[in-house]
Amino acid sequence: MYDYEKSLAATMQEVKSGRLFRGTDCLNPHSDASYLSDSQYVGHFGTSADFCKKLGGVLDCYGDLKDRPVFINDGAAWIREWIADNYPVAGSVLDFYHAMEYLYEFAGKVSFDAASDKKQWCDKQKELLLASDVETVLKNISSIAAKEEDKKKITKYYQNNKGRMKYKQYRAIGCGIIGSGAIESAHRTVVQKRMKLSGQRWSIKGAKNMLRLRVISMNSGQKL
Fold it and tell me: CA neighbours within 13 Å on the CB side: how many for 158?
């Protein structure tokens, strides 16, 4: 079992958000005009353990989902382990944009002959990732001239999440979403739009209360 209380994310200094929706709620998923017709928000200002309990409680309201849930998130260990412990047969997707962020960060530390060479290399790795060929990407990273510490960072991240990087398969099932755009939007609309305005200062109690109101407001469709 994973000790959520001792995880690096178990802090009182950040808001954690979740967003639940059905595959049928995602309209035009493969276009720039994609949107969710309906969704449910979960927000928590506190430890990762308490957030997981809250999110799990909401998921329990949907009944026995068996292997139907698909979780899309970054590579944080506490999220990965919570899913493995509580929903072992559910789908779990490493957010493709986080995977690419690691790739671009690594490529930025490699000395290419020209900027076009860097773009060409990154584009090739992107194609391989979308084809679920993580092994070839790891080999390409290993063979390129770069500092070992930089190689180690991205290699460890990809190896830890390799089982969650079956993007070709994920794009072919459900609504085909492999990115966390929905939750990034939730961060902006639920939290930042109301709680990160210029000049605002919050006590912990005040922030918690406002977050609860924001989640209720967004879930009920009433503006606050």
Answer: 27
Q: Are 26 and 177 in contact (CB under 8 A)?
A: yes
Q: What is the token pair recorded at 39? A: 């969704």
Alpha carbons 69 and 15: distance in angstroms, whole number:
23
Q: Copy the structure tokens of residue 108.
A: 């930025």
Q: Residue ranges of the alpha helices (H) in the chain? A: 48-60, 77-86, 96-107, 115-130, 134-143, 148-161, 167-171, 181-186, 193-195, 204-220
Q: Are strands 26-27 and 91-94 parallel, antiparallel or unpaired?
A: unpaired
24, burial (CB in 10 Å: exposed 0-12, middle 13-18, buried 19+): exposed
pLDDT tens sequence across 77-94: 899 899 999 999 988 899
pLDDT per position as a tens digit, 134-165: 999 999 999 999 999 999 999 999 999 999 99
Task: State pTM to two decimals.
Answer: 0.78
Q: Considering the domain 4-94+179-220, what is its CATH architecture?
A: 2-Layer Sandwich (3.30)
In the DSSP assignment, the letter for residue 73 is E
Domain layout of the chain by residue ranges = 4-94+179-220, 97-167
Q: How far is CA 113 from CA 1, 4, 24, 123, 144, in A?
A: 47, 45, 46, 16, 13
Average pLDDT for 18-22: 89
Choice between 75 and 158, residue whose per-residue pLDDT is larger? 158
Segment 54-64, tens digit of pLDDT: 999 999 888 88
